[in-house]
Specification:
The complex is a heterodimer of chains A (about 220) and B (about 270). Chain A has about 220 residues and is mostly helical. Helix content of chain A is about 85%, strand content about 0%. Chain A has a single domain, classed as Phosphate transport system protein phou homolog 2, domain 2 (Methane Monooxygenase Hydroxylase, Chain G, domain 1), CATH 1.20.58. In chain A, α6 (about 160-180) packs antiparallel against α7. The two termini of chain A are about 25 Å apart. Chain B has about 270 residues and is of the alpha/beta class. The chains are: A mainly alpha (about 220), B alpha/beta (about 270). The complex binds adenosine-5'-diphosphate and magnesium ion.
């Protein structure tokens, strides 16, 4: 899409920040994957490890911010270069929050039970999570390749996530009257569903940021 | 007069808006040759009233050549031929009837290397008003010298030594002296050809700050090698490449999201 810089080291710094985002993104996907597995299998063995790993994600976020700051201070980037540095910090911030959702999912496992009803709901959450993981992995591809067409496709998929959230919410509303003694679990399930729904929104944000890096255009909320 | 041309009908290869709502200078299809070699080709651009516009582009792309068209400095170069039309306040400055002496008072110029005359600070500033016969008594001249030095932001630094040689000042002070010399003859336009390239960052900042004040009274066209300087001081930026005006637009547009790929490559320091 763009030519190389006369100063080769500038290219190195911009590609470093890109690899850091991609690495951070892969780790977030892994975290979502593992915490969802724990939720579905009610396996609490890995949870401390998952919570620990979130600290690593937070650290990566700080590193990316620091490297972006250095590029801006020392290279005075303009136009697309400035957007690459500036929006890297926005994307990293979305990824950091996605990491938090994975952590919350892991922390919630202890509150779940193997009740038939709960199982049915967590399996719906599992579907949501799969969709989120796939969207996230594709949006990282779009970011890697400056692919605004792929980014636009991902934005459309947010509807699927929203629909799943509504379905879980409706199911829970119906079941509260049936199993009132388990209301804490149900509230937790709604919270997790809400997190996955928010995860979809954050991926949409990343998709818009990819569009802005490439085109310079800040999309309206409707696009 | 062609200045009342219909903008929609005017064709140009330049990307962006070459027009100004309130033009001071209108140039149309300007080409300049040095003997048989074409240095700039078919450049059309308005310079707005009291705007600062910067001309950027790689060395040899024709920025200085274009700048020198506005006060007919190219006339002084052997073998140099200018084609096309340039209007200043609706008047074709390449008309046979035009006298270049008052033209050059109206269109002042500041060069890359500060070039004060080997005279006193006072006489450097008084030189122009004297040869143009603007004043006939000492008191008026004193006033012009004081006002010009004040407007050039130099008065406080030199008011106690107006008789010492201009060449004894620091580089940045010399450049401000040259600006004072240019504004002493009440120009309407100031052309600056890389005015800060021989100055340190502090002296540069002082000139840049001064430019903002000067823009209240003059139109300023500045050629600069420093893209950051263009970004800092000008409202509009024009990008030249190989003798052509590739793109012109608001500086904030040019430095955030230029339309032409050649402009983007240049401002981001990419191999074009
Ligand atoms: N006095 C001159 N005689 C012959 N060629 C010249 C003269 N001045 C400039 N040129 C040529 O015209 C082209 C544009 O030069 P110039 O306007 O000085 O570019 P810039 O100011 O963008 O560096 C260059 O190819 C340069 O060699
Ligand atoms: Mg030059």
């Amino acid at each position: 899409m763009t030519n190389e810089h006369i100063v080769g080291k500038f290219d190195d710094e911009l590609s470093r920040i890109k690899s850091e985002i991609l690495e951070m993104g892969d780790l977030v996907i892994e975290q979502i994957h593992l915490s969802t597995n724990a939720m579905m299998s009610l396996d609490t063995e890995d949870i401390d490890n998952l919570i620990q790993k979130d600290l690593k994600i937070n650290g990566m976020y700080k590193t990316i911010n620091r490297h972006a700051e250095q590029i801006i201070a020392m290279r005075q980037p303009v136009a697309i270069d400035l957007r690459m540095a500036l929006l890297a910090t926005s994307i990293a911030s979305e990824l950091e929050r996605l990491g938090d959702y994975a952590k919350t999912t892991a922390q919630g496992v202890k509150k779940l039970s193997d009740d038939k009803y709960v199982k049915k709901l967590t399996s719906l959450l599992g579907d949501m999570s799969k969709e989120v993981q796939d969207m996230l992995s594709k949006i990282l591809k779009a970011y890697q390749n400056n692919d605004i067409k792929l980014a636009a496709k991902i934005r459309k998929r947010d509807r699927i996530i929203d629909a799943s959230f509504k379905k879980i919410l409706n199911t829970v509303i119906k079941s509260t009257s049936k199993i009132p003694e388990d209301s804490e679990t149900l509230i937790y399930i709604v919270l997790l569903a809400r997190n996955f729904e928010r995860a979809g929104d954050r991926i949409v944000n990343i998709s818009r940021q990819v569009h802005q890096i490439v085109t310079g255009i800040d999309l309206k909320a409707s696009d | 007069m062609e200045m009342n041309e219909d903008k929609k009908d005017f064709k140009t290869n330049t990307v962006g808006d070459i027009f100004s709502d309130n033009p001071k200078i209108v140039s149309r299809n300007v080409s300049v040759y040095y003997n048989d070699k074409k240095a700039i080709s078919d450049v059309s651009l308005d310079i707005g009233s009291k705007e600062i516009i910067s001309l950027i582009g790689p060395s040899g792309c024709g920025k200085s050549t274009f700048l020198r068209c506005f006060n007919r400095m190219n006339d002084t170069i052997d073998g140099c031929k200018v084609e096309g039309k340039i209007f200043l306040d609706n008047e074709n400055i390449y008309d046979e009837m035009i006298d270049v002496v008052p033209l050059r008072a109206k269109v002042g110029m500041v060069f890359q290397k500060p070039n004060p005359f080997p005279k006193s600070i006072y006489d450097n500033v008084a030189y122009g008003p004297r040869i143009h016969g603007l004043v006939d008594n000492k008191k008026d001249m004193d006033n012009i010298v004081e006002m010009s030095l004040k407007n050039a932001g130099l008065w406080d630094e030199v008011k106690d030594r107006l008789d010492s040689p201009g060449t004894g000042l620091s580089g940045g002070q010399q450049q401000r002296l040259c600006i004072a010399r240019a504004i002493a003859v009440s120009p309407e336009i100031i052309l600056m050809d890389e005015p800060c390239s021989a100055l340190d960052p502090i002296a540069t900042a002082k000139i840049e700050e001064l430019l903002q004040t000067l823009a209240n009274d003059y139109s300023i066209v500045i050629v600069t090698h420093s893209m950051q300087q263009a970004a800092r001081v000008s409202q509009r930026t024009a990008y030249f490449h190989l003798g052509e005006l590739v793109e012109v637009g608001y500086t904030k547009h040019i430095f955030t999201n230029p339309t032409d790929i050649k402009t983007q490559n240049y401002i981001t320091g990419r191999i074009g």
